[in-house]
Design brief:
Number of domains: 1
Helix content: 25-40%
Structural class: alpha+beta
Number of strands: 6
Radius of gyration: 13 Å
Order of helices and strands: EEEHHEEEH
Distance between the termini: 21 Å
Mean pLDDT: 89
Shape: globular
Largest sheet: 4 strands, mixed
Number of helices: 3
Strand order of the largest sheet: 3-5-6-4
Strand content: 35-45%
């Protein structure tokens, strides 16, 4: 199964390690350092030019990639099918 992240980008749900809120998670120095290092290594992919709300950490062939996304983490989780629309 694939999840649409925005623009013309979709990733396999099996490749997703985590979906994170950008505002809350970047309060941590370690997270900011991790994102900065990934950007220097060319592993950060922006899927939109709009204001980012989340990032999706993915693994593919023993390498990780970070997708910066304008969608909220809750929207992405719903798209992945992990939360039903009724909240059950």
């Amino acid at each position: 199964m694939y999840i649409h992240l925005g623009g013309d980008t979709a990733v396999r749900t099996d490749d997703i390690i985590g979906i994170f809120d950008l505002d809350n998670s970047t309060l941590s120095y370690k997270t900011r350092e991790f994102l900065f290092r990934a950007e220097k290594e060319g592993r950060v992919i922006n899927v939109s030019t709009e204001l980012p709300k989340s990032f999706v950490l993915c693994r593919k062939k023993n390498k990780y990639y970070i997708y910066i996304c304008q969608l909220s983490p809750l929207t992405l989780i719903k798209r992945a099918g992990h939360i039903s629309k009724t909240g059950d």
